[in-house]
Amino acid sequence: MKQKETNLAEYKSGLTPLQEQVATFLASGKQITDTANELQISRATIYRLFDNVVFMAYYNLLCYEIKINTKNNLFTLQDKAFKAIGAALESDNDLTKLKAATWIIEKIQDVQIGCKNPIDALSNQCVGKNIIDVCFDNTEFEKLKRQYDL
Questions:
Q1: Domain spanning 17-93: which CATH class is it, in words?
Q2: Given pLDDT bands bounded at 50, 70 and 90, which one contains residue 12?
């Protein structure tokens, strides 16, 4: 499912156009030195921007948008990727087969599996944190158990 992108043309960042440009360059992967040279500003100016919470919020938004776009693009390539891995597993080259099989095994081992017990999942949902400690909302827990007939 494709996630909705932010319309950055309508987004009010609170930054100057130059600051927005710095954030855009950095979020797209440009190095600080290259950004400074291209925009004809000092590296120190860029480093000072990292202390500006408004700049960081805009930079983080750009990074988030790039991450979402990348994720969406990866999903469109998954069929080709599976076919390529399948072809590698069918290869006459034993090293290619071994690398493909090892990669698959590593990816399967990396898969994180969440809570499988519904009671435990509801219990985890009822744990809150206040300033002093962690607290458990037993009333909410019992309500949720009834709601799900558990």
A1: mainly alpha
A2: confident
| 3-class state of residue 134 by DSSP | strand
Q: How far apart are CA 81 and CA 111, in angstroms?
A: 18
Of the chain, the percentage scoring pLDDT greater than 90 comes to: 35
pLDDT surpassing 70 at residue 26: yes
- Judged against a pLDDT cut of 70, whether residue 34 lies above it is answered with yes
Are 54 and 13 spatial neighbours (Cβ–Cβ below 8 Å)? yes
User: Could you tell me which of 61, 29, 57, 22 has the C-alpha nearest to residue 43?
Assistant: 22
What pTM does this model have?
Answer: 0.53
Domain ranges in the chain are 17-93, 118-147
CA-to-CA separations, 75 to 29, 34, 83, in angstroms, rounded: 22, 31, 14
Classify burial at 71, counting beta carbons within 10 Å of its beta carbon; exposed 0-12, middle 13-18, buried 19 or more.
exposed
Biggest CA pair distance of the chain = 65
pLDDT tens digits, residue range 109-139? 887 877 878 888 888 888 876 666 678 888 8
For helices 17-27 and 32-39, angle between their N-to-C axes, nearest 10 degrees: 140
What kind and span of H or E run contains 47? helix 43-49
